[in-house]
User: What shape does this take?
Amino acid sequence: MLKDITLGQYYQTESVIHRLDPRVKIGGTLLFIISILLYKYITGYAIAVLFVAFVICLSHVPFKFMVRGMRSVLVLMLITVIFNLIMTSQGEPVVQIWKITITDEGLVLALSMMLRLALLVIGSSVMTLTTTPNNLADGMEKMLGFLKVFRVPVHEVAMTMSIALRFIPLLMEETDKIMKAQMARGADFEHGNLFVRAKAMVPLLVPLFISAFRRANDLAMAMEARCYRGGDGRTKMKPLKYHKRDYIAYGILILFMIVSVWFGRTKWW
Amino acid sequence: MPIILDHVNYIYQDGGNEQVMALKDINLTIPDGQFIGIIGHTGSGKSTLVQHLNGLLKATSGHIYYDGQDIYEKDYQLKDLRSKVGLVFQYPEHQLFEADIFSDVCFGPKNLGLPKKDVEYRAFNALRSVGMPEELYYQSPFDLSGGQKRRVAIAGVLAMQPKVLVLDEPTAGLDPRGRDEILGLIKDLQTGSNMTIILVSHSMEDVAQYVDRILVMDHGSILYDGTPREVFRHYKELETIGLAAPQVTYIMHELKAKGLSVDEDAITLNEAADQIMNLFRR
Assistant: This one.
């Protein structure tokens, strides 16, 4: 029952985008988001849509996985569109129903806002779908490495992050198991009012916390047994290294940014 | 109250959106009072199968009848079924949660809505039948040893007074002594209170000694179904699916191959020892 939830939604396949250095993908996503926020006119969004379509084609990830992330922002998108439609008073009225006037500028604005939200979600989905959580954490660690100067424990934070990500599916599985075990003893998690249901969670939460602590303890022990002592002087088995394709990707991204922002901020009519 | 499985299939989607057929056309009748062992390699569908028996998993297609009633019928009370078919999961000690042992064992019968007196009576009986010393009843379950914790967890299911007791790998992670104790306890439950016992295991040796009937599972279907003797005759085929017959079976077969007149169907250590002693007596 809990298997339906997917987190760290990596999609396993073979593609150029998958092979890119995580730093390129994180940096690229950032550049992409900044560009989108800079557009003034719809031309910019049109270019961004084309660009995203191009990247999705390269990534070999089925389109339905990309759209999946959209479901969570669907309501937000709907509200944005409706408000932009009915609250914009500038421009020529196109439709008039009762007291609500929809103007041509309102239409354009609503469309732009919708595209902006959709592109933000899909753009970041491309990154999470093509990069394993561990790779992401690695990339982040490397990119934020300069913070070490300010005594920020970058390595430790990255390590904590990847461990947390690793534990999510484990804890899901554990929850499912304990839930079933308690149901086999007649527990009921589905019926009753809020108070009854909250109380019914106790037989689930107590064993879950105990097992989480046990696992954390075991892991800490195993790490110590392998002489783990934080980031200082630690080398990596697979250090991140830029290849030719990564430089090309950076080039394409910067080109995209310049072109789309220039087009997106110039009035053509 | 026999359990009948009729063409049961179970399909689920794994992470990569691929359909996995965990159970394939299972047909099975489980009569009262039988001690059944289910063996199979990891991922052969043993655990999935037993979770169908008390309705925790719902078959994709097919029917399961308990006491002549279809458990997938709309108004069938699954809660009643779960009190009659007790399921002890793998590492059941991980589900303990109460502050003391006695309250934890009370959890099951309390969920059945029984009066307080009955709940405590059942809990007391259950703890006694698994051989927990009384002075431990009000201790925290987390202070016990691994074997003791497991007994408490089994008592937690026994307190529901099920007619059928299903145990998923009850000896996993125990030392040989703890294993023998748990298996002995289970055998006593079957002979003493005439319970139907279903024991899931991947150890042939465990199963051979105690059970009346073995089901061998492989890739979601039942490969062999019969008495231990019948099943272990297929010891060569068992090896191809990653299982092995008890060690004595191999010895007996080799002795037979060397031309000695032994019965190769001996499956327990004692039977084998008797056979070999007979050779010397002759």
Summary: Chain A touches chain B at residues 3, 6, 12, 177-178, 180-188, 202-203, 206-207, 210-211 (CB under 8 Å). The CA atoms of residues 192 and 200 of chain A lie 9 Å apart.
